[in-house]
Amino acid sequence: MANCSGCGPGYRSPLDAMKGPREQIVYLPCVYRSTGIQKSDYLATVDVDPKSATYCQVIHRLPMPNLGDELHHSGWNACSSCFGDASKKRNRLILPSLMSSRIYVVDVGTDPKAPQLHKMVEPTELFWKCNLANPHTSHCLGSGQIMISCLGDPSGNGKGGFALLDGETFDVIGNWEHPGEAAPFGYDFWYQPRHNVMISTEWGAPKYLAGGFNPAHVAEGHYGSSLHIWDWTTHEKLQTLDLGPEGAIPLEVRFLHDPDATEGFVGCALSSSVFRFYKTPKGDWEAEKVISVPNKKVEGWALPEMPGLITDILISLDDRFLYFSNWLHGDIRQYDITNRRKPRLVGQVFLGGSLVDDGPVKVVDDPDNKPQPPPRIIKGRRVTGAPQMLQLSLDGQRLYVTTSLFSAWDKQFYPEMIRDGSVMMQIDVNTVSGGLTLNEKFLVDFGKEPDGPVLAHELRYPGGDCTSDIWI
Fold it and tell me: Is the model's pTM score more than 0.85?
């Protein structure tokens, strides 16, 4: 961190963050929902310091006090948005539960290697105060409050609203959006205060996605395809950008990290496309498709065509590279986005997936004209499942990846991952000309956990990272 007396958490700028210390531990939510194992989800602490005697091992587990939560994504009580406030500390991890609608607040400040439960916010708080449920993305705000996007209402219908928590007590304050202005569906969001804007995305109605994916539900209108543009100051919804069939199920949204930037990217899962959104000269917002992963015609699968299913995307802190995972095809891609409108593929690596050449699926027509990849075996362990959640080291040189998407969908598409547990892998990144290479010496096998195989999901570094920190 840049020298500065009385600074708050995080870093002065994204480029300062790139000079931050190497990650030594990561936190991962581990999920037992849908696996048949009647145990509570937990927060795992994994040692990623190559100099450590416990490298590549889970060194601590913090079990939640309830069953069936579906821990999913996490956020901070304070990040680089509070950099100028010396009274703030990044010492609480916010853990929303996607299915139970509980929100756990975890103390990671007292002992970062052994987090402890600080507070539990019961679902009724969210239901009664906000008429919201299924909390997903958590971001701290420069004001000290915490904002959490939600997928639905307490009945499981789609409802894209936002709950505010007090940053000190973690009590639910109420809704961020105005009454009647919630989006039809919710999922992720990112704000850019210098342009007075927040953009949110859509997944689907919780009662339809909770048990697995049914393509008919897309045609019936139970999944989203829009971006929502919000006034950051007044909280009014200004625009809805319908991305259409080519933008079906827009999930992770990422502004460029430069707080002056007026553009970013969103990964659209079902259509396997990436859209660039941007501010126009007249001050409103538009979107254009800039990357498309073609479907592959297949035999031996549920449908005659298999989409890539872009699930997680992220941008390096210098805004130079974009990364995303194709959860069905099984590859991670790296794009040079120096030309924002024409991303250029510079790296690709296959890590499992549904196309492996010894599996039941046969590709009969591939627009990319590539052979089916061999299965990936690391340290004697076959990777079941496929790359999904991503986290990039601050310096951009290491990409960490886990294989679980959402427990019910894991069970549907990769039943062998339910049996074997998920894994965590690490990819070495060429940050000069581009390129991705699997680190064959790194593997965290969540199939060997004390209570049985578990599904590890999102990755967080204690000091912040490129998917949690926002600069204002």
Answer: yes
